[in-house]
Specification:
about 220 residues, alpha/beta, Rossmann fold, 6 helices, 7 strands
């Protein structure tokens, strides 16, 4: 069976921080991997033409390094998804799913602190209901540094992994890809740093008894 995977990234770099090694592993196994970017810097007035051009070049580099089978850019305003009409976002997500008919979805965690992450999570969950997208057999949440770890709540909503992927063979290429996003990364002790990425890989690896790993929460798994 040719597994089809879609990773939903509220913003470019979420896919690499959250599951970059896992996506590379999917490709190494011969699976189709598709990248759905939900927001687009080019529609915002908050960025210069130079920044927008740099982002376009970055996305091309990243897509080439992953060898994604397709890149879908939904083109919504960054940091503004909570003001997008629900029907508009759902239709865009449904069209994406119908065009690919994937088996496996990777989505941001429901309780990430960033509102865009929360909206993407809710939208994908709604668009992939079994009666709407019966071809989707797995829905898996990834963790994003500086978002998942800051989703503080008095309720027990913290990220509690129930799946680990051994990414030991893919960390070098994942780090190479993250260097494309150098402008988004900051120096230690900022959580979204190269040291932070490596520390999380080592921690999740220790929990899984491997050199390096990425951790996930499985929401749906049908065999």
């Amino acid at each position: 069976m040719n597994k089809k995977v879609v990773v939903f990234a509220p913003h470019p770099d979420d896919e690499s921080l959250g599951c970059g090694g896992t996506l590379l592993k999917h490709k190494a196994l011969g699976h189709e991997v598709h990248w759905c970017i939900v927001t687009d810097m080019s529609v915002s007035d908050a960025y210069s033409l130079e920044q927008k051009k740099h982002r376009e070049d970055t996305l091309e580099q990243v897509a080439e390094l992953y060898e994604f089978d397709s890149v879908i850019n939904l083109g919504f305003q960054p940091a503004g998804l909570d003001s997008v009409p629900t029907g508009l976002l759902l239709n865009a997500l449904k069209e994406t799913l119908e065009s690919i008919k994937p088996n496996t979805l990777y989505v941001p965690y429901a309780f990430d602190v960033h509102s865009d992450h929360k909206v993407v999570y809710q939208g994908v969950i709604s668009a992939s209901k079994t009666f709407r997208a019966p071809y989707v057999s797995s829905i898996i949440c990834y963790e994003t540094l500086s978002e998942t770890d800051y989703g503080l709540s008095p309720s027990n909503t913290q990220f509690q992994p129930n799946m680990y992927v051994d990414t030991s063979d893919f960390i070098e290429k994942k780090h190479q890809i993250l260097k494309c996003y150098a402008s988004e990364m900051q120096s230690h002790p900022f959580p979204r740093s190269f040291k932070g990425v490596e520390a999380l890989e080592i921690l999740r690896g220790a929990q899984a008894f491997v050199d390096a790993a990425e951790a996930f929460v499985i929401l749906r798994q049908r065999w």
